[in-house]
Amino acid sequence: MIYLRGHETDYDDWGWTRDDVMYYFKKSENQTGRFSSDSTHHGVRGGVYISDMAYRTDLSDVVLSAAEELNFPRVDLNDMKSSPGVMEPQVTARDGARWSTDYAMRHISPDKKHLHVLTNSLVEKVLVRGGVEAYGVRFRRAGGTGEVRARQAVVLSAGVVESPKLLMLSGIGPTRHLVHHGIDPILDLPVGDNLQDHVTTGLDLILLNQSLPLSEKGVLASPFLAYEYFLNHRGLLTHPGCEAIGLFHVKGDATPDIQLMVLPAGLSTDAGVVMRPDMHISDKVWSEYFAPLVGRQVMTMLPTLLHPKSKGCLRLRSANPEDPPLINPRYLAVQDDVKTLTLGIRLIEDFINTKAMKTMGAKLNAMPIPGCQNHTFDSDVYWECYLRHLTLTAYHPVGTCRMGTNPSESVVDHDLRVHNVSRLFVIDASIMPTMPSANINAAVLMIAEKGADSVRRVN
Ligand SMILES: Cc1cc2nc3c(=O)[nH]c(=O)nc-3n(C[C@H](O)[C@H](O)[C@H](O)COP(=O)(O)OP(=O)(O)OC[C@H]3O[C@@H](n4cnc5c(N)ncnc54)[C@H](O)[C@@H]3O)c2cc1C
């Protein structure tokens, strides 16, 4: 996965100091790439391996040169202050293969003395004694139920969707909503509010006159790629999908507002096999917009809205733990979000017009998206229509168990303890009060390190 921390100003509103944030980023990280000697900004003793990409196409250098033409220098964005700027991304990988936190845990506790994992188990609620102290969880497994009792603390790390759901199923959440579902309320907290997500757009928006190796034929048709990956941990299959990354301040604020992720491909690249169903692209949009691009060289510069003003919410569908909750993301509900994303598209146009990108014949895909043909192509009105038809999640939801000081506005305190319940923590992306200017996994790792220190202090 792409490893990017965001900007130092992102965390000022969280109530954590910049020094603390940098300390825990460094603590989580085992930097093996080109920044490993920069001990001011990078750690080399953490559990998660961070490395340079093992493979990239020619597009990477072309886009980084284009950025320099536009006065966006090549920097280490993970120093958290050098934006606007661009970089070849770093990834959570070791020796060309993905490195995740579960590997990190096995690495830290190889004898498994301190780690017992129950797979195929669904936690259904937190056990709370007298409404004030958490003492374990109840779970379903193989048709039965079981309980796990905690000696020190219960930590929910079930993610932005399931952590708030579990709190509500346990009686912690908006009282009227819980009563509506027949759940005995313990604590009235704004669980499920404050849902935020990065949205992005611009799929297949750039056409090139040169071919790149990340095509349907390139990826699917070559057994040598699999051979190269499994034997040497090298080659196209190590590719994270992204060639260059940049943080920009299109509105001139101190905090970046648009991220560009450069992909040497588009939705049409796999001819509709994987990405089309994954992204729920309708038959009409596929056949009229994407299908004509199959076999042509497209690329994508995803402009991602880093700090959406639109906020959604999550609520229970029922009191059954197996029911998925109801989610209303309210994407682009606030008009200012459309304006910022439109500025992101204008930024892409600046890139397309650089000498560097013209060497690859870059031009805007001028085919109007179905539903927007009545607007003049490339007008602001057209782009608003386009955005409202082709904006997608970047899979970075946060915020449903928001951290803060006031229990009427937040769910956990600055040590990630649920307000007014002892021995109960939430430690995952759901505690973020606001969004980082980055893909969010690095911030989740930082939160986890900080949360682990809070749990250690419980006696
Ligand atoms: C397709 C995709 C691509 C992404 N790419 C990137 C990227 O390149 N870079 C980046 O920074 N971020 C990326 N992200 C985002 C990143 O993966 C998430 O933000 C991050 O994993 C969130 O971590 P978390 O610990 O909050 O939740 P999760 O990683 O979702 O972990 C929650 C865990 O809890 C378990 N769980 C949930 N409910 C229960 C229950 N009731 N009982 C038992 N277990 C339960 C789940 O199975 C899961 O294992 C991507 C996300 C997606 C979906």
Automatic annotation (TrEMBL):
Keywords: FAD, Flavoprotein. Its cofactor is FAD. The keyword Lipid biosynthesis does not apply. Residues 1-199 form the Glucose-methanol-choline oxidoreductase N-terminal domain. InterPro entries: FAD/NAD-bd_sf (IPR036188), GMC_OxRdtase (IPR012132), GMC_OxRdtase_N (IPR000172), GMC_OxRtase_C (IPR007867). Coiled coil: none annotated. FAD binds at residue 123. One of its GO terms (molecular function) is flavin adenine dinucleotide binding. Residues 308-448 form the Glucose-methanol-choline oxidoreductase C-terminal domain. Belongs to the GMC oxidoreductase family. This is Glucose dehydrogenase [acceptor]. The gene is Gld_20.
